[in-house]
Predict the 3D structure of the following.
Amino acid sequence: MNARILPYVLILPVTLFLCLFFIYPFVLVSQQAFQAADGGWSMENFQEVVEYWKFPISMKNTLLLAAIVVPVQLALALLMATMVSKMKKGRDMVLYIWTIPLGISDLAAGIIWLAIFEQSGFLNSMLHGIGVVDKPVNFLTYQNPWIVFLAIALAEIWRATAIMLVILVAGIGLIPKEYYEAADVFGASKWKQFTRITFPLLRPSLQTALVLRVILAFEIFAVVAALGGTLFPVLMGQTYSYQFDLLNSGAAAAMALIILGISIGFTLIILRILRVPKGASI
């Protein structure tokens, strides 16, 4: 086969996949979002979802959850990845154990944490056993919004930190050991080695991990549905409600595009902050 044609032949399956499962659905969703009731083009759907009283609450909850969960996950993933990279024995076993939540679906993770926080759950049993409470406490109610938020945040941190961990472990593995040996020779502390060697050279991995995690943070739905239900509205939950409860596909499509726009905006910010100079290499 001609060497000029070969690269295009190799990327053809991926191109067809993207066109069939991303570009074509995206065009359909965009068409629904901008289509008016009379068949023309309009911003009616966007106006409807933005003016709905739950939209600012959903936006605030989604942004707050992302602002709390993602930095905590990043710190935990960096700490865990650094620990794993320094281990001599049992490294693979520890990594396997820490990445177990990756094999659990969002809804299953939410149900697991529901079994902890519900009225007949493990937390109530423990508190009753040590004499802190006389009778079971219903934590996940409208009277305890911050406990609902805490339960969702803990479930997300437990479930999705492993995604960032795997990416960062791979990135640390690419950093040459000679850099750390030279730093030891010059008497650099472990903290200086981390801030001057590990962190700067992890920028490409940090970019990937943060972009992926931020996008997923704005798509959170199943964990919230299991733990908070309607007590903690989020953007993706409102999208589901428009599509399946209210049967308003135009408004659902508009919500989907709003979430996409927010995700793209934060992605560009992350890429700008953690930009890697052209030609830079480890």
Observations:
- The radius of gyration is 23 Å.
- The chain is about 75% helix and 0% strand.
- The longest helix spans residues 54-86.
